[in-house]
Amino acid sequence: MIERLSGHDQVLLDLARRLASESAHAYPNGPLAWNEMASAFIDGLLGRHTANFESRTRGALSKDVLQRLKDYIMTHLDEPIEVAALAGIVGRSEFHFTRVFTRSVGVPPHRYVVHQRLQRAVELMRDGRSGLAEIAASTGFADQSHLSRWVRRVHGVSPTELAA
């Protein structure tokens, strides 16, 4: 670690506060989101507060392992999906799994899962056979409002506008 007599890293402080808040409030954004924040905190700590930190490029997940993970995610889309379960599938620690998954897929596990949920929800909305609350429940969103916020965040329109 770099010895510091003074200084302030607001980004790390904000991440630490968000991690503490998530932990204190029983992970309202889910354990995958917490894991993603923890990884960002550790990356920031190592990247900005150690001497000669080099980001090591290590292996990636093989195509068959990625397919097993994708199959698991799609099968369990309506349930909470924890990084521990995904890491267990590939036999790695949660921390190492998150790094290797992100390197292999391009996004952290939490983002990937939310993206898959959102894609499936949009398909169901466009199909028009189910109500928004039912779609939210079947795709793993906490409720209709949670799904609506993600639709607006990603697509910039309401679910009804998207389905039209």
Q: Write down the overall geometry.
A: globular
- Radius of gyration from the CA trace? 18 Å
Query: How many separate helices?
Result: 9
Tell how many strands the DSSP assignment holds: 0
Strand content: under 5%
Which structural class do the helices and strands define? mainly alpha
What characterizes the major β-sheet? none
Total number of distinct structural domains: 2
The helix/strand order is HHHHHHHHH
Query: Whole-number average pLDDT?
Result: 85
Give start-end ranges of low-pLDDT stretches.
53-57
**How much helix is in the residues?**
55-70%
The quaternary structure here is: single chain
In whole angstroms, the N-to-C terminal distance is 55 Å
Q: How would you characterize this protein structure?
A:
The protein is built from nine helices and no strands. 67% of the residues lie in helices and 0% in strands. The chain has helices at 10-24, 31-49, 63-75, 83-90, 94-105, 109-127, 132-138, 144-155, 159-163. Helix 4 (83-90) crosses helix 5. The protein folds into two domains: 10-51 and 58-109, no CATH class; 113-163, Arc Repressor Mutant, subunit A, CATH 1.10.10. It is mainly alpha-helical.
